[in-house]
UniProtKB/TrEMBL annotation:
Top-level lineage group: Eukaryota
Subcellular location: Cytoplasm, Cytosol
Keywords: Cytoplasm, Initiation factor, Protein biosynthesis
GO molecular function: guanyl-nucleotide exchange factor activity; translation initiation factor activity
Subunit text: Component of the translation initiation factor 2B (eIF2B) complex which is a heterodecamer of two sets of five different subunits: alpha, beta, gamma, delta and epsilon. Subunits alpha, beta and delta comprise a regulatory subcomplex and subunits epsilon and gamma comprise a catalytic subcomplex. Within the complex, the hexameric regulatory complex resides at the center, with the two heterodimeric catalytic subcomplexes bound on opposite sides.
Every Nucleotidyl transferase domain range: 5-137
Protein name: Translation initiation factor eIF2B subunit gamma
Keyword hit for Glycoprotein: no
């Protein structure tokens, strides 16, 4: 086993709390499949037979049943957090440290992607990378897609990614949010970076897929340093910076006891990152006999003589998007249903047996009853729903067990599980989570029970 796969699925969906009041983000439906299904399907297609999954304890049974329910062969090794525990991604890796035996692939449960994983593994393996990250080029139109609910100005979160022009080295990484208001229009790059990589392409239009291939020794380093909470915001930028740190000289007398230092202080001293680094002796010996170099223009050896090195695989084709915001969640449903036959050719969609007007880019769940006189366009409807006469539904996401009564118009809205919309309502760009009474007209509202509202 060369790699182990880890799915981070304990996130609470803090940016979409209207949808995650009573369920975890990983179980929100995308095209009538639980969100985590897409990560499991991607791993199974890549050849993984098992996966480590980190979730909250109260949803263990439902998540454990997903492979059996949807015909997946991949086996889940589930690690649970308690109901009120809130772990970051680095904390979660620390929690499963005893299960990690090899290099790992870490995936966020909200990723939907059809980029072949073997291309990321090939890059990681070829260069013996410490960390390899997947980035994709996503159009601003997709990232700024509209979402239901109150109108708010969408602030696009960007990463400034510095890539070497000669190689796929990841040499600089900073979030735009980390730049202060005083210097947000200026970007400072350390001299040590420019010395080794004088030609850097800094890009702000790349999406970090939150898919990382990580060396085993880096996992050990994360486990030892409990100050790390998040992989994306803390660990990855830290490792990128450490590429340009000189490794300490080996002390020949390091194993000899020092009469002036106590045994307790020796055991409790914080270990340097280079003390975790495990090199491949055979690889180093082959490289020492080879004239190959990954760059030109100086006398330094391969990889600038760096023991720690990070790489980025930038996918220029294929689909890659995360459901980390309400806007992206809605856009994922729209985009995936359009691409379903190419992304999942072995997962057939059975069209509904009905005289209703149903568009080609719609999805209707099992046991859903459609009136012959209703019209459905650009929408996804879950299982066990009931759609009444003269109902018009356009660009909506309707979850399971929803009832929409006659002569109602729904546009650009999300109807949550078990919600009811009574007769002659006109709902536009809303989130519905309870019973909406007859003749209601609402636009850009969150129509949920009072106990579902977020208290601040």
């Amino acid at each position: 086993m060369e790699y182990q796969a880890v799915i981070m699925a304990a996130g609470r969906g803090a940016r979409m709390t209207d949808l995650t009041h009573d369920r975890p983000k990983c179980l929100l439906p995308i095209c009538n499949r639980p969100m985590i299904w897409f990560s499991l399907k991607m791993l199974e297609n890549a050849g993984f037979e098992d996966v480590l999954v980190i979730i909250h304890e109260q949803f263990k049974a439902e998540i454990a049943d997903i492979p059996n329910k949807y015909g997946l062969k991949i086996k889940l090794d589930i690690t649970c957090l308690q109901k009120n525990e809130d772990y970051g991604t680095a904390d979660s890796l620390r929690l499963i440290k005893d299960k990690i035996k090899t290099d790992i692939l870490v995936i966020s449960c909200d990723l939907v992607c059809d980029i072949p994983l073997h291309k990321v593994f090939d890059l990681h393996r070829t260069h013996q990378s410490s960390v390899t990250a997947l980035f994709s080029q996503t159009s601003p139109e997709v990232m700024l897609a509209p979402a239901p609910g109150p109108k708010t100005k969408i602030k696009q979160e960007r990463d400034l990614v510095g890539l070497d022009l000669q190689t796929p080295r990841l040499v600089f990484l900073v979030s735009e949010a980390d730049l202060t208001s005083e210097n947000e229009e200026e970007l400072s790059i350390r001299k040590s970076v420019m010395k080794h990589f004088p030609q850097i392409s800094v890009q702000g239009n790349l999406l970090d897929a939150h898919l990382y291939v990580i060396k085993k020794w880096v996992c050990d380093y994360i486990s030892e340093n409990r100050s790390f909470t998040m992989l994306k915001g803390e660990v990855l930028p830290h490792i990128v910076r450490k590429q340009f740190t000189k490794s300490p000289k080996r002390n020949i007398d390091k194993d000899l006891p020092n009469a002036d230092v106590s045994v307790i202080s020796l055991n409790t001293a914080k270990r340097d990152i280079f003390s975790f680094l495990v090199g491949d002796e055979e690889e180093e010996r082959i490289r020492s006999y080879s004239a190959w170099n990954d760059h030109r223009g100086d006398l330094r050896g391969p990889y600038q003589d760096h023991a720690i090195r990070c790489f980025a695989y930038v996918a220029k084709e294929g689909f890659c998007l995360r459901a980390n915001t309400l806007n992206n969640y809605c856009e994922l449903n729209r985009q995936v249903i359009k691409r379903w036959s190419t992304m999942f050719p072995d997962e057939e969609i059975t069209p509904p047996v009905s005289k209703a007007q149903v568009g080609v880019d719609c999805l209707i769940g099992e046991n859903t009853q459609l009136s012959d006189k209703c019209s459905i366009k650009h929408s996804i409807i879950g299982q066990n729903c009931n759609i009444g006469d003269k109902v018009r539904i356009t660009n909506c996401i309707i979850m399971d067990n929803v009832t929409v009564m006659k002569e109602t118009t729904l546009q650009g809205s999300i109807l949550m599980k078990n919600s009811v919309v009574e007769n002659s309502c006109d709902i536009k760009d809303c989130i519905v989570g309870h019973t909406v009474h007859s003749n209601c007209k609402s636009t850009n509202e969150v129509l949920v029970d009072a106990d579902r509202l977020l208290e601040i």
